[in-house]
Write a structure and sequence with these properties.
3 helices, 25% helix, five-stranded antiparallel sheet, alpha+beta, globular
Length: 132
């Protein structure tokens, strides 16, 4: 049993990136699907596919690498709000990641979204992670 599935999700992507793998398979959940959708929309991963195995399900993620240098597009995935210490922010104090080059993923009352979108909709919430 995993106590923090989001941290496990981020660690699997981080490890696959460092190992230079093209794809990574992660056990599925609704929050992981939403984070994956945001990462695809923001251009940090190529694509994903949800595989139904009549159990929990699996998210198969195709990682994105730079065409010239073959370095991973995701430089860092950082868990901000942890089960032992939750981090909340209102719309005015949502942090900018790497001066706007990265994104923060925020859990709001209207679902998961990037920090920039949450600011524009004047929503605060729990800061899940930072990606750059």
């Amino acid at each position: 049993m995993n106590t923090d599935p989001v941290a496990d999700y981020l660690t699997r992507i981080r490890n696959a990136n460092q190992a230079g793998l093209k794809t990574v398979e992660i056990p599925s959940s609704n929050i992981k699907k939403e984070i994956t959708k945001i990462l695809v929309d923001q251009g940090f991963i190529l694509n994903y596919k949800i595989i139904d195995d009549n159990l929990q399900g699996i998210i198969k993620i195709a990682l994105k690498y730079d065409k010239i240098t073959s370095e991973p597009v995701i430089k860092n995935l950082q868990r901000v709000s942890k089960p032992g210490l939750r981090k909340y922010s209102n719309s005015k104090t949502i942090p900018r990641v790497l001066n706007g080059l990265g994104i923060s993923i925020v859990s709001t009352s209207k679902g998961l979204m990037t920090g920039k979108k949450a600011k524009s909709e004047n929503l605060g919430g729990e800061i899940i992670c930072n990606v750059y």
